[in-house]
Amino acid sequence: MHPTVPLFLGVLRKLLKYIGNFFNFFQYCCICKNNNLENSQNGDKNMHAAKHSDNFAEDKYAHDEEVRFRAAVRRNRLLGLWAADLMGLAERERYAGEIVDLYFKMPDDEAAVRRIAGDLSAAGREVPLHDIRVKMTELLFEAVQDAEIR
After folding, report:
1. pTM of whole model > 0.70?
2. Dihedral of the CA atoms 103, 74, 72, 29 (nearest 10)?
C-alpha cells in the first residue's frame, strides 16, 4: 500500500465530517430562525421549540447513520460490479451481492478489499491493493451522493 493512502483516507473522513457538521449547523440555524419567528408571533411555543431541537439532534444522528450505512452498502455493490467486470464474470449481480453480504458479516472495508484482491488474483488479474482502495474511495463519493438523494 502506498504510504499516502492512510493519510488521504484520514483527510477524506475528516472532510466528510466537517461537511456534515456544517450542514448540521446550517439546518439548526434554519430551525432556530423559524422557531424565533413563530415564538415572536405566539409566545406559547417555547416549550415546543426546545423539544423540537432535542428531537432534531437525535433525528439528524439517526439520519446520518442511515446515510453512512446505505453509502457503504452501495459502494460495496458498485465495487463488486467493477471487480466482476475485470474478471469477466457473467453473473455480475450475484458477485456484487456476495461483496455486500460480506459487509453484513464483517463491516470492515479491508475484508472486501482482501476478498476482491483474492478473487481477481484467482481469475488471473493482478490488481494492487492500492488500486482497489482508490476505486473504493471513488465509488464512495458516488454512493454518498446517491444515498443522500434517496
Report:
1. no
2. -150
